[in-house]
Structure formats: C-alpha cells, structure tokens
C-alpha cells in the first residue's frame, strides 16, 4: 500500500481468509460479499486517492441484523473492520486494510420517515446528503448541512466526520442537526441514542459519536432536523483587491452582529477556475471574492444587504453584485460548490486540505500560505468557509513528477501546523483519518491523547474498528488501565510485554 504506515496485518486473519469469506457469505447471502481482486478495486481508496489498499473482503449488508451479525462475528474471531459510506472521505477515513473487512453501508439507502410535525426525517446512513433535502423540498423544507460533495456523500459518513458546508455558519454542522442515531457496537449490540426530542439526560453519547470517524460503532439509522426554507434568500458577490481586505471584511461583518446564512471566500486562482468551469458571473479582476448570503424576512434581508455592502465598502471592495433571482443566487453558489472539480481542470493533481482558524487570524494565515507556496514551489488555490474560519487550501501538484506528492503533503502539513499555531485546529469537517493522524501531537499532548484512547477502549477494547486512523500510536487497553506512560517511556522497560 502507498501512503502512511498502517497496523501490521494479522497473519492468522490472512491465512484464514477463505473461511472468513465463506462465513460472511452465510451472514450476507447473494451479492453481499465481494472478494475478487478486480471487483474490490472499486473500494481500494476513498476521496484521498493518493493512498490505496485492497481490503480483505468487502461486505455490503442490507439489514441491521446482518450488520450486527457481521460485527459480532468479527469481534469473536478478532477480525478488523473498516466502516465505509459513499467513499468520499478526504482524510483517508475509509481507507481499507489488508486484513480488515470493509463494511460498506451503501445499501442502507432508504428514507424511513418524514415527520413534519416534529420537523425531523428518519433515514438510513446510505441516503445522500442532498437526497434528504430533495425528499422534503416540495413541502418547503430542507436539511441544512450542505458539503460540496452533497450529491454523493452519505449521511452516515457525514455523522462519522461531522461534515459541514457553506451554510453551516448560521445553521450548524452535522452535530447541530442530528437528533438521534441507531448504532451497532463491535460486539453486535444494537443501541439507540437520542431521538426526536431536542435534548436528553445522561452522557452525550450522540455528540461523542458525531465525528468519531468509525472508531466507536457503525451507524444504521439517523434522525435529522429539517428546517423550513426561509422566506427570502439573496447572495452578494463582493470583490476585493487583496485577500487581507476580504478577510477583514469577514471579521467586520460578524463583529457587527450579522450572521449570514453562508459566507465563503475564494482567491484569484480559485475564482478563475470556477468561472471557467461554471460561468457563474464571477469578477476576474479581483484577488479575493466573498459570497455572502442573507436569509429571512424580505425586509430584514434588504436591510442586511445594505449593511454588508457598507462594511465591504469600508474595507476597499471594488465590486459588489446582489442576486436578483433565485436562479442567479443558485448560480453564485454553483461556482463555489464546483471549485474542487474546477481546480482539477487546471492541474493534473491537487491535494485538498482542511483546517480551522480563528477568523481574526485569516490575514496572517494567508500570508503564511503564500510564503509556504514559494518555499515548496507549488501553487495553492484557496477556498474558505470564511465565516467560521474553515480553510480548504487546494495544493496543486503533478504526481508524475518525482517528489511532488511528498512536497504537497509536506506543504499541507505545514499549513496545518500554522493553523494550530494561531489557535486553530487540524480539521473542521474532513476528519483526521490517516491524513492528519501523525499531526495529532501538534495539537494534543500525551495525556490528551491517552484520554481519547480510553474512550476508544470503552467501546472497542480489541481495537478492531477502523484501526490505524486518528491516533498516531494506539496503546493496548490493558496498558491504559494499569500503567502510566510518562514522556512516552514505559516503566520497567526491560520486562517483556505481549
């Protein structure tokens, strides 16, 4: 496998592959088990396509009972499991392992119930993000989190990574819009957490599961909040001669008490790529572009547009254009949501990063990225969820040129270190996966990481679920409970341990 070092494959599991495949076929009959090399190629990678590995076997269950039996079987025989949704993860979160069952949840693709009285939808994890909105749009509702991959990404994967989107500034991330889940633990137990109610007593297991990246359990049902579409929504395109001015405008808008439905920023390279691809009407003579959407009652939106334009003018904007129709508003957003594939047209390869910073640090981080771009000799196109400080730098490289992939990864690692240095975090919505795994010590000390691993041990004491992801080095659960590791040194290191 290319990419980062993963856990050594279990020799016993590899030797017993034929038996494991036959046993899994008894649990998931028909076409639910895929075990030939050519057929498994479709599952060898996720959205982080630089890394790939064939799994031990692919299993596509259709019922909760099948999921439960598969996990119970794997727990009994010590077989590792990698859960997978639509495979759009950009952090390698669904990267297979050579000795692991790849548990693909794409056949869980039904919307089970829409409850308008309680404003919730109950869906299976394989339903696409956009599929929820499409199902309720005719009645004037929608599902708020809207990642750029919403046409393909699954709601189960959104829960695993705590996905965001362009409208999460005002309406929140996945964790703010999920009310309940059904999940299967590694031992096969099926439990329910949360429900249609707003809040519940006891530990916040729902919050813990949202963003747990497949390390704690497998989600089989999700209850999400649906919202009434606002009376009016209009978007403003605002161009600036520098990215620093655009960044300051973002801070001033939020500082004025205005919370837009969405506020996105693109730099010159991303603007041109998106405009050439979508023809959204973006200005091409600016260094930075803000898309600011205001929604609510028509009179309020009109007043807020005027205030936003005033703030933009005080920050030196050189162009401003307000959408005059729903079609035009959608076109403004189409360019932003197509930024990733658009950049793919101007570079053989690109590396999509994800980090989050305090909004006030945006000018500093932009300047730092320019310096890093010169250091590594690689261009970078910047696309930001500017309102909440979630950055998505797209590092352009050519994998056919020796050393460029490594340079792109080193460039990305330095960007993430910069994010942490200014008070930010390693990820905003893509997750840690394998991409940021070895950078976790940049943000957490040893005790922090050990405490997180203790949570992992409480759910999965054998470390069978998605091993090799998130944590740079896993300690055995017995060690976590019985001994203290000081500065990475075990007490009595001369004693053999097994």
Automatic annotation (TrEMBL):
Domain named FAD-binding PCMH-type: residues: 51-229
Obligatory cofactor(s): FAD
Domain of life, per lineage: Bacteria
UniProt xrefs under SUPFAM superfamilies: FAD-binding/transporter-associated domain-like (SSF56176), FAD-linked oxidases, C-terminal domain (SSF55103)
InterPro entries assigned to the protein according to its UniProt record, in alphabetical order: FAD-bd_oxidored_4_C, FAD-bd_PCMH, FAD-bd_PCMH-like_sf, FAD-bd_PCMH_sub2, FAD-linked_Oxase-like_C, FAD-linked_OxidoTrans_Type4, Oxid_FAD_bind_N, Vanillyl_alc_oxidase_C-sub2
Organism encoding this protein: Flavimaribacter sediminis
Molecular function GO labels: FAD binding; oxidoreductase activity
Matching Gene3D superfamilies: 3.30.465.10, 3.30.70.2740, Vanillyl-alcohol Oxidase, Chain A, domain 4
The protein's name: FAD-binding protein
Pfam families associated with the record: FAD-oxidase_C, FAD_binding_4
PANTHER family found in the cross-reference section: GLYCOLATE OXIDASE SUBUNIT GLCD (PTHR42934:SF1)
Alphabetical UniProt keywords: FAD, Flavoprotein, Oxidoreductase
